[in-house]
Write a structure and sequence with these properties.
Layout (H helix, E strand, L loop, with lengths): L1 H4 L5 H4 L7 E4 L11 H9 L2 E4 L2 H10 L6 E3 L5 H13 L4 E4 L11 H10 L4 E4 L4 H9 L6 E5 L5 H10 L6 E6 L4 H12 L3 E6 L7 E6 H10 L6 E5 L12 H13 L4 H12 L3 H13 L31
Parallel strand pairs: 1-4, 1-5, 2-3, 2-4, 6-7
Antiparallel strand pairs: 7-10, 8-9, 8-10
Helix pairs in contact: 5-6, 9-10, 11-12, 11-13, 12-13
EC number: 2.1.1.198
Catalytic activity: cytidine(1402) in 16S rRNA + S-adenosyl-L-methionine = 2'-O-methylcytidine(1402) in 16S rRNA + S-adenosyl-L-homocysteine + H(+)
Main location: cytoplasm
Length: 325
């Protein structure tokens, strides 16, 4: 049955792809069963597999009886291997790019080859698979509708401080990767910068001894200081709470509309933007602008007769949510 499944049939003959392609193949992040039938077929059929660590990838290939040739592609040989692999693609060779775990191009050197392939006008075909960031996110218990993936933080210095400072007001859930020997220092910095936010820390995800620790950043700092982890870790940190809305002042709202119009913004969009800021309807902002003009407090000028006075209604007459929906 395996032989039938892996029967080599050229994609070009089947008309799936008219020219040689770079296939971005997702591989397991721990459990070898977490790989798709399509990924196995691609790894079997391509002419060459470019791997971050050929020894690691060979274990996966051996497990599934795949004997496709391997070549290394890592941060130490990018300069020479990128043009070499592009040359093979131009010659009509299909290449699969894999990382040690998960999807290539995420926190690994694969993105360089992808960028070069796109620039060369050659096809790039994603073959989805496991991903540590999303796996940890969906199991974290934290909001997963909006999130920001930060990968590995800069090791130290000004760049690290600036990156952390830029995240203080980020309302989306944050996802980081970290090595075990740097975890305590990272938790120290996150707790100092972001405060006592909730965090979920995934270790050995999809493996036999998978654990997901949950608590606050200060609690995580103390726990992992006493219990040093092993293996790569994924941190999922709660985003910042939404900033409180300013108190609504009709005169100030009207002035802000006038300022936005003076800067070149369309009146309708200016009123909608101010309505979002204060959580008011656009009708209310329109009234505020009329009151400001009639009261001689500076106005938006030329607002004209209110639509309601003509028996009509203002366009978009509804409460405006903070997101503008």
């Amino acid at each position: 049955m395996r032989a039938a499944f892996f029967a080599r049939v050229s994609w070009k003959r089947r008309g799936y792809c008219p020219m040689a392609s770079l296939y971005l193949v997702g591989t397991p992040i721990g459990n070898l069963e977490d790989i798709t039938f399509r990924a196995l077929r691609v790894l079997k059929e391509v002419d060459l597999i470019a791997a971050e660590d050929t020894r690691h990838t060979r274990e996966l290939l051996t497990h599934y009886g795949i004997h496709t040739p391997l070549t290394s592609y890592h941060r130490h040989n990018l300069a020479s291997k990128t043009p070499y692999l592009l040359g093979l693609l131009r010659e009509g060779k299909d290449i699969a790019l894999v990382s040690d775990a998960g999807l290539p191009g995420i926190s690994d050197p694969g993105e360089e080859l992808v960028r070069a392939t796109v620039a060369a006008g050659l096809p790039v075909v994603p073959v989805p698979g496991a991903n540590a960031a999303l796996t940890a996110l969906v199991a974290s218990g934290l909001p997963a509708g909006r999130f920001a993936f930060e990968g590995f933080l800069p090791r130290a210095g000004k760049e690290r401080r600036e990156r952390l400072a830029a995240l203080v007001g980020e309302e989306r859930t944050l996802i980081f990767y970290e090595a075990p020997h740097r975890l305590t220092a990272t938790l120290d910095d996150l707790a100092a910068t972001l405060g006592p936010r909730q965090v979920a820390i995934g270790r050995e995800l999809t493996k036999k001894f998978e654990t997901i620790w949950r608590g606050t950043l200060p609690e995580a700092r103390e726990y992992f200081r006493d219990n040093p982890p092993r293996g790569e870790l994924t941190l999922v940190v709660a985003g910042a709470p939404p900033a409180p809305r300013p108190a609504y002042d009709p005169a100030r709202a009207a002035a802000e509309v006038a300022d936005l119009e003076a800067s070149g913004l369309d009146r309708k969009e200016a009123m909608a933007r101010v309505a979002r800021i204060y959580g008011q309807s656009r009708r209310e902002i329109y009234r505020a602008c009329l009151q400001a003009r009639e009261g001689g407090q500076g106005g938006s000028g030329g607002l004209g007769e209110p639509a309601t006075a003509r028996g009509g209604s203002l366009p978009g007459d509804k409460a405006v949510s903070p997101s503008g929906d």
